[in-house]
Amino acid sequence: MTAEFQAAHPGRTRWFAPFEWMLAGRYLRSRRKETFISIIAGLSFLGITLGVATLIIVMAVMNGFRTELLTKILGINGHVLVQPIDSPLNDFDETTLKLTGIDGVDFAMPFVEGQAMISGPGADLGALFRGVRKSDLDKLSLVSDNVLLGTLDGFDEGDGIAIGSRLARQLGVSIGDSVRVITPRGSITPMGMTPRVKAYPVSAIFQIGMSEYDGTIAFMPFNEAQLYFNKEGLATGIEVYADDPDAVGPLRPLIEEAAERPVFVSDWRQRNMTFFSALEVERNVMFLILTLIVLVAALNIISGMTMLVKDKGRDIAVLRTMGATRGAVMRIFIITGASIGTIGTFAGFLLGTLVCWNIESIRQAISWMTSTELFSPELYFLSKLPAEMDTGETASVVLMALVLSLLATIYPAWRAARLDPVEALRYE
User: Transmembrane stretches, by residue range (predicted)?
Assistant: First the structure.
């Protein structure tokens, strides 16, 4: 209230006056006879802190998980896949040039794809082979910038292949070692189709950081892949990489028009719809479930404040007889309860932020202490635990916790304001 209003209403106290904050602070401090109430307040504080921190951490990990997967998937696979219809893709050079000229397209690359068995000293495994040109492979920074051993120089001219680090480890091979590639669709003879077996040296080993790709994908020169998979002069398809992966919708009709031939066009959202939809559903459900933790902690504030009001009935009556208004009493207990929620919320925010910044170090420490693997690459695809805090999402968690904490104090504070001083002092 303003000074003019205070002078005109001398019987009224200013909202959130210093004495209200002083009394609220005294009620928050523990006394010997109020130990049980202090325990409830402490548990409420701890519950809100852990609830907010858990919500921030889980949401950050799920955001990081989605971002990392999206980065890895779109770093290997094109944003838009163009495949031929009715006739083989024998004009892939001309079509690729047309697609590259579309506004919003970063680059396009033809490829030859086939599945085959790859055999090494350590194992015989199935792998997905992709024939690409060296100039196009250089544009896939997720591969070209993460070559652990060997080099991609002279990739087009040689007959070597590039494989993932996990695949190399399982096969038991390193740079310069030869692996045998076997496909059932080989040469046609009078006796029928015979398997094709050919040895290739390992010229490069890359590590993307996604176990599925590091353990199953191998790159070979484009011309060699055409010969090996019986696709001389042909390409399996053309992968188009857009400037903005989220804006592939408007590009699809432009790509179909620019191709000037019957093609089937699909974007990354269609090819991974089930996977990313499941992630989104899981994320939303986890948010609702973990919000209940904060809600339970807020309910603890109600119970603790209700007991505090009952215990402070005499103090409330004395305050009322000394001239304190109902509003002043209500504000005292609102400050008391809201302080628990506010301090607990910001403590949870700091704890959650600290854990998110060090999530991988914490995971490694726990794995070392328990001798277990908490984030298995075989199950979760990624080699490390990611965490990405979203500013808007984190702010909404903090705001939700503050609102719930404030709402939890209103009823006990209202009960305190409605307390009759005569009834409270009758038996004192």
Answer: 36-62, 285-309, 329-351, 394-414
Query: Which of 208, 220, 242 is CA-nearest to residue 112?
Result: 220
DSSP 100-151: HTSTTEEEEEEEEEEEEEEE-SS-EEEEEEEEE-HHHHHH-HHHHTTEEEE-
User: Model's pTM, two decimal places?
Assistant: 0.69
Identify the three-state secondary structure at position 232. Answer: coil
CA distance 91 to 263: 12
110 and 100 Cβ atoms separated by less than 8 Å: no
CA distances (Å), 156 to each of 13, 153, 214, 219, 220, in order? 85, 8, 21, 11, 8
Q: Which of 234, 261, 288 is the last residue of a domain?
A: 261
* Two structure tokens written together for 283: 């994320």
Number of domains observed in the structure of the chain = 2
Give yes or no for a contact between 306 and 393, defined as CB atoms under 8 angstroms apart: no
**Cα–Cα distance, 141 to 357 (Å, whole number):** 26
- Kindly state whether residues 295 and 232 are assigned to the same domain: no
Q: What's the whole-number mean pLDDT along residues 379-398?
A: 78
Lookup: tokens for 324: 């304190």
Q: Which residues pair with 124 in a beta bridge?
A: 119
3-state secondary structure 395-407: HHHHHHHHHHHHH
pLDDT digits (tens, 9 = 90+) for 80-114: 999 988 888 888 899 999 998 888 888 899 999 99
269 assigned to some structural domain: no
pLDDT at position 171, please? 92
Q: At what angle do helices 326-357 and 313-321 cross, to 10 degrees?
A: 130
Structure tokens that stand for 84 in this block: 């031929």
